[in-house]
Amino acid sequence: MNSNKKVACPLDCYDACQGENIDGNIKGSNENITNKKLCVNFASLLKEDNLKSAKYKNEDISLEKALDILEEKLKSTEAEKSIYYNGSGNLGLMQSAPKNFFTQYGSALTKGSLCDGGGGAGIEASRGAVINPSIDKLLDADVIIVWGRNFSVTSSHLYNQVKDKTFITIDPITTPIAKKSELHMKVNPKTDYELALFLTRLAFMNRAEDEEFLEEYTEGSDWFFDIAKNRPLVSYEATTGVSLDEAYKLFDMVEGKSVAIMLGLGVQKYLEGSQITRCIDGFAAYMGYHNPNTAGGLWYLSDSGYGYDKQFAIKGKNKKIAVPEVDFGNYELSFIQGANPVVSAPNTQAVIDGLKKSFVVFFGTTYNDTCEYADLIIPSCSFLSKKDVRLSYGNRHKSLSYIQKDKEEGTISEYELASYLIEKFDYQALCSEDEAFEYYKDKEVEYPTLETFEFIEDIEVEPLYKDKTEDNFYLITAKSKSSLNSQFKIDNNVYLHESTGYSNGDIVKISSKYGEAQFTVSLSNDIKESCAFFFAGNKNTNYLTPNKEDEDSNSAMFQEVLINIELS
Ligand SMILES: Nc1nc2c(c(=O)[nH]1)N[C@H]1C(S)=C(S)[C@@H](COP(=O)(O)OP(=O)(O)OC[C@H]3O[C@@H](n4cnc5c(=O)[nH]c(N)nc54)[C@H](O)[C@@H]3O)O[C@H]1N2
Ligand SMILES: Nc1nc2c(c(=O)[nH]1)N[C@H]1C(S)=C(S)[C@@H](COP(=O)(O)OP(=O)(O)OC[C@H]3O[C@@H](n4cnc5c(=O)[nH]c(N)nc54)[C@H](O)[C@@H]3O)O[C@H]1N2
Ligand code: SF4
Ligand SMILES: [Mo]
């Protein structure tokens, strides 16, 4: 072990907090944005009942035996009949070591994401890379527009630093940040691109666009404006659910101010998530918010690895499957690491049916829902026993993790498992763990400033409202304060507005064209009348969602669906 007391929070979260081991208690450090506080999810992580023994067909076995079974299974399976599926249970950079082995072995790999892919593709198309502006530009902004992001919950530390600013929220749900906002636009789901065009049109009418910025930094703004003015204002009001008065209020609030847009997952969980995001980014450009020389900008989930060379990456000719479309049933062997697809991937029934047909190896820290279908379980050791580096996707800092305690007997780290298999198969070895760690620790990235912003030229988005009737609902999910995706404290209710006529405690059957499941109703007037709301991690929501990829980024589109509710 070592004397360095730093521990990075490994959880998939914007903040990437830095902790410190003080006499056996992990406390938030005063580095980065952590500001001495770690959150309730981190506290839950420390209390997790971690896997202590490997299991084969539900019986405890030794780690050595488990590794033998894995090796034997890999040797007796044709590589292309196997798949390597990695989730985001731990975002440390060392987690990618096993992918190196499976690339050399020849497994199918995944492409795209269950998370931010569509939005990222949209931003990349206009700006070349998905990089957030520096944090100073946020701290210096006057007004913050929180757009499809559960800001105070999902990046609570970042929020704490700016909580006294003026907020505008654009979200169908009255989220905690919406309650603190001076203006809340309860936009209809999947109409954010129309809202962006509506606002662009008004910006022109109000002479609010930043002509100098447009001239110097952008291409295609006239065309973008032409698209925006194609429709009468009243038609935008009708489809977006945002009134002209509210839109004018936004312009009153941002006039002469520097503005930051905190853009979240909500706007892009759709087939055309990339186009939708690009329209919002286009509105931000039209207003000059991307100006590298002034405060403000647009923050999304940035490519946290930008500028780093992946230390364990290796080229291969592996087949790549869009992650929402993975059918485990197509593979004799499925190796699942740091993920819980039974809850977090779309179309739960299809996931379960597939897992039942495959020999499933689960490599993780806890016995989660997916373990029910695993033939072999290999326990990964706790983050406290792994050396690692965490990069934030919310801002630009990194956090470091040194080993704080010996790993439990019977557990193994990602690096160790990968090295073990690589040796057994006589493949090209990984660089040493220390070498990789030191590289990530010491590397300083220079982030480019915006050179050219290219506006979107064609917009073709099929609205969901076309198929919306009195009887069906939009499906909305957002993260919860006390869970981290499917980990920790899970809430399995459906939240509905009281105008739906249901009562608290009603048991309802909810169905979509992808599947059905039962839920208990909890009434909340924070939910827009047309929406049914679920917290991410709800064990039944993804029975309803499409296991199909979006149009641009091979990523999930959880909200591209309408659902029906009936008493059961
Ligand atoms: N406490 C906690 N923090 C987390 C996580 C967690 O599980 N718990 N998860 C982490 C992960 S993996 C991620 S990716 C990030 C995600 O963090 P966020 O980007 O904040 O994503 P969500 O929580 O999904 O919030 C999406 C918001 O969009 C809204 N929304 C839904 N549909 C629409 C729409 O059509 N238009 C608009 N304008 N809004 C819409 C929802 O109501 C919700 O408020 O959070 C990270 N942080
Ligand atoms: N309907 C709907 N579905 C969603 C979302 C949504 O908003 N709505 N959000 C999506 C998003 S943004 C995301 S990022 C995904 C997340 O989906 P997943 O990546 O599948 O994440 P989790 O479901 O949290 O499962 C993480 C698992 O990782 C394991 N784990 C934790 N630490 C370690 C470790 O150190 N090593 C190893 N090997 N394993 C570890 C734990 O056993 C845990 O159960 O879910 C997506 N699913
Ligand atoms: S706020 Fe996020 S990064 Fe910080 S301790 Fe909590 S889960 Fe970890
Ligand atoms: Mo995510």
Description of the molecule:
This protein has 568 residues and is an alpha/beta fold. The protein folds into three domains: 50-113 and 312-382 and 407-442, Rossmann fold (3-Layer(aba) Sandwich), CATH 3.40.50; 117-300, Dimethylsulfoxide Reductase, domain 2 (3-Layer(aba) Sandwich), CATH 3.40.228; 464-567, Barwin-like endoglucanases. Helix content is 28%, strand content 20%. The protein has 18 helices and 28 strands. The strands form eight sheets. A six-stranded mixed β-sheet has the order 5-4-17-16-15-6, with helices on both faces. A six-stranded mixed β-sheet has the order 24-26-25-28-21-27, with no helix packed on it. A five-stranded parallel β-sheet has the order 10-9-8-12-13. Strand 18 (388-391) and strand 19 (398-401) form a beta hairpin. The longest helix has 14 residues, at 63-76. Bound molecules: ligand MGD (2 copies), iron/sulfur cluster and molybdenum atom. One ligand MGD binds at residues 10, 12, 87-90, 114-115, 337-341, 343-344, 363-366, 368, 380, 383, 477, 484-487, 536, 541-542, 545, 558.
Give the strand content.
Answer: 15-25%
Give the N-terminus to C-terminus distance in angstroms: 56 Å
CATH class of the largest domain equals Alpha Beta
Proper CATH architecture of the largest domain: 3-Layer(aba) Sandwich
Low-confidence stretches: none
Question: How large, in whole angstroms, is the Cα Rg?
Answer: 24 Å
Number of helices: 18
Write out the distinct hetero groups bound to the structure.
ligand MGD, iron/sulfur cluster, molybdenum atom
- CATH superfamily heading of the largest domain: Dimethylsulfoxide Reductase, domain 2
Strand order, biggest sheet? 5-4-17-16-15-6
What is the CATH topology classification name of the largest domain? Dimethylsulfoxide Reductase, domain 2
| Largest sheet composition | 6 strands, mixed
Shape: globular
Averaged pLDDT: 97
How many DSSP-defined strands?
Answer: 28
- Domain module tally: 3
